[in-house]
Amino acid sequence: MNRIYSFKKIISFVLIFISSMIMLLPFLTAVFNSLKTYAQYTMVPPKWIPEPFKWSNYSEVFQLGDFGQYTMNSLIVTVLSVIGALLSSSMVAFAFARLNFPFKNSLFLVVLGTMMIPPVVTIIPQFIIFKNLGVLDTLVPLWIFEWLAQPFGIFLMRQAFMNIPNDYEEAAKLEGCSPFQIYWRIFLPMCKPALATLAIFTFMAKWNEILAPSIYLTSKENYTLPIGILSLGGQWFGNEQYLVAAALISLIPILIVFLFAEKYFVHGDSSSGIK
Q: What pTM was estimated for this model as a whole?
């Protein structure tokens, strides 16, 4: 029996290792390509490992273009979007989960129904609205909608709030807490896993967004990182290894956010409630 168990365990580890290498191979290829000279980058047959490693490619990315400005623009949009999503979505979700008002369930179904509307359908009306407001070619259209509570965030936070036992709310009411105090001081700290999930999803969506910036932005100094990197393609013609290095640099903030929120991301709501 022990031999069979050990054999199954070895097979499992081998399969996991092979799967991990398959997933990791494209990333390693990109890393090696970012450390090559242009001659090595275009070599046929390709040379996988560069000799020597050209680490200066990463510093030259910042010197040859407005990469720093694009990064700052993306950071502003992403941070404002995450803050807006966490606040607005959690407030609306708390109302749907814990407050009583007419047509609550019907309104929630309407909110969920908006998730089925393709984003491209609303681009023209939104463009007209932003044009009349005079905020085209600014960063405002890229983050303002997150402050208006998006359906996915409302759904995610509502489920988290509904999983919290009623005893917490009743105890808070006996202590004289208002609905906002219950939301802010009791429920919100107990939903850190859901908040971390929403923050990660919002950060990734806004950091990698291409469609909205390409529509609303026309000035080069307002470009966000994705379209900024694409715009540098012509400038870096003959040095495409810089584009690979720039793309890898753009991954660093996402990895940092995920590692920071991982401890909340993997824990359940129940463990937070017990604390």
A: 0.84
